[in-house]
Write a structure and sequence with these properties.
Shape: elongated
Strand content: 5-15%
Structural class: alpha/beta
Pfam family, one: AAA_lid_14
Number of strands: 16
Protein name: Sigma-54 dependent transcriptional regulator
Keywords: ATP-binding, DNA-binding, Nucleotide-binding, Phosphoprotein, Transcription, Transcription regulation
Helix content: 40-55%
Distance between the termini: 62 Å
InterPro entries: AAA+_ATPase (IPR003593), AAA_lid_NorR (IPR058031), CheY-like_superfamily (IPR011006), Homeodomain-like_sf (IPR009057), HTH_Fis (IPR002197), P-loop_NTPase (IPR027417), Sig_transdc_resp-reg_receiver (IPR001789), Sigma_54_int (IPR002078)
Organism: Pedobacter ginsengiterrae
Radius of gyration: 29 Å
Length: 456
């Protein structure tokens, strides 16, 4: 039996009955209707693979103009629909015209069942091929940024990092949902990609979605997709991130920023493993491995009723808590050397080394921005240094900022630390949101959400 849904449109009850009786033994689902005026409703409610379309509906008509009109209408909804035209008044000229307008095939009534099945079978293969090509095109377009940027590997020998790597290797081959916790800049995306790279899905898509920078009004259309005409600028059907990640891994970063209504929508998708595009009513199955991350205290948020407990249960089958850089000891120097090599190569400079005073400064600094801040500091140092040795002056860690960071308590709660970092950046840049966001490694939208969240 073919895994296909066939829609048959014909004004002859006998034709509909005979086609349904034969095809219901050959395909997954058969839908019939007498009027092409029902096409829009039927296509919006069902995942149709093949359409058998009669060419004449008015009494006495035999020129096929109606069929050609409805063929164009169907293909305007989705050019990838597979349409087979049917008529009792066939001629070569009409068949050629139908094929030129986008019909997949042309059959005469009454048909032989073997011929009908062969036509349906070929059409089903074509539909599946079109789907794969379309999905690959969308994936290619959506992932260009990530493909050109590449990913870092996990660098570190600290005991906490070794334990995390051991857990990662146990969890990665499974499909367990993983929640990665840690301060901003600790490498949550790097760990997410390592999980994907060591999983059974490593040759499939890794889809990164930054929920912190996603406008609330675009949440559904970006994650779940939309149908043509769903809103003013929806000029074509577009699959969402979940559909594009089908078979692979979807990484939802900054999940703690979701509002309660959006949490409910996400939970529904995770529970049912289906998505419904905006402007449609039909459900589409998705098979994705879920990884989430946040720097926010989700358990505290559950207590305060700002994060759904059932969603937390759904996403944290396994938790990974990444340590801040200030607690990773000599990993700071390992990472510094790694970044020096990367940026020396990028900017076509000889490999740099760190002076002893520069090493001491890196080890004693508290790194509120964690690995991301270290990366930025080393990139700047490689660019600005004149010799082969990077000195403490090249690091440009000002004494004032250094002293302030030294007073930061190690056990400060993540939320308090984030608030302090946001306030410091805004004060430093005298309220300039663009500059403050750039220093924090955030988008303007993400920074505005934090300002509102902390009442700054």
């Amino acid at each position: 039996m073919l895994d296909a849904t066939v829609l048959i449109i014909d004004d002859d009850d006998d034709i509909l009955l005979s086609a349904r009786l034969f095809l219901k033994q050959q395909v997954k689902q058969v839908i019939t209707c007498k009027s092409p005026k029902e096409i829009n409703v039927l296509l919006s409610k069902n995942e149709v693979d093949i359409i058998l379309l009669d060419m004449n509906y008015q009494k006495g008509a035999s020129d096929g103009r109606e069929g050609l009109y409805w063929l164009e209408h169907i293909l305007s909804i989705d050019k990838d629909y597979v349409v087979i035209l049917m008529t009792a008044f066939g001629n070569v000229e009409l068949a050629v015209k139908a094929i030129k307008k986008g019909a997949t095939d042309f059959i005469l009534k009454p048909w032989e069942n073997e011929k009908l099945f062969a036509t349906i079978s070929a059409a089903s293969k074509l539909r599946e091929s079109n789907r794969k090509v379309k999905k690959l095109e969308k994936i290619h377009s959506s992932l260009q940024k990530d493909l050109t940027r590449g990913f870092e590997n996990i660098v570190g020998q600290a005991e906490g990092i070794k334990q995390l790597q051991t857990t990662l290797l146990k969890v990665a081959p499974t499909d367990a949902n993983v929640l990665i916790l840690g301060e901003n800049g600790t490498g949550k995306q790097v760990f997410a990609y390592e999980i994907h790279g060591n999983s059974q899905r490593k040759n499939q898509v890794f889809m990164h979605v930054d929920l912190g920078s996603l406008n609330e009004n675009l949440f559904e259309s970006e994650l779940f997709g939309y149908a043509k005409g769903a809103f003013t600028d929806a000029k074509e059907d577009k699959p969402g991130r979940f559909e594009l990640a089908d078979g692979g891994t979807i990484f939802l970063d900054e999940i703690g920023n979701l509002t309660l209504p959006l949490q409910a929508k996400l939970l529904s998708v995770l529970q049912n493993r289906t998505v419904t595009r905006l402007g449609e009513s039909k459900e589409r199955k998705v098979n994705v491995r879920l990884i989430t991350a946040t720097n926010m205290p989700l358990n505290e948020m559950v207590t305060k009723n700002t994060f759904r407990q059932d969603l937390l249960f759904r996403i944290n089958t396994v938790e990974l808590l990444l340590p801040p850089l200030r607690k990773r000891g000599t990993d700071i120097l390992l990472l510094a050397n790694h970044f020096m090599q990367v940026f020396s190569s990028k900017y076509h400079k000889e490999n740099r080394s760190l002076s002893n005073k520069a090493k001491d400064m890196l080890l004693s600094y508290k790194w509120p921005g964690n690995v991301r801040e270290l990366q930025h500091v080393l990139e700047r140092a490689v660019i600005m240094s004149d010799g082969n040795e990077i000195t403490e002056e090249d690091l440009q860690l000002s004494p004032q900022r250094f002293a302030q960071n030294n007073t930061m308590p190690d056990e400060m709660a993540l939320g308090d630390m984030e608030k302090m970092m946001v306030q410091k950046a805004i004060d430093k840049h005298k309220g300039n949101i663009s500059k403050a966001a750039a220093e924090l490694g955030l988008t303007r939208a993400a920074l505005y959400r934090r300002i509102e969240k902390f009442g700054i």
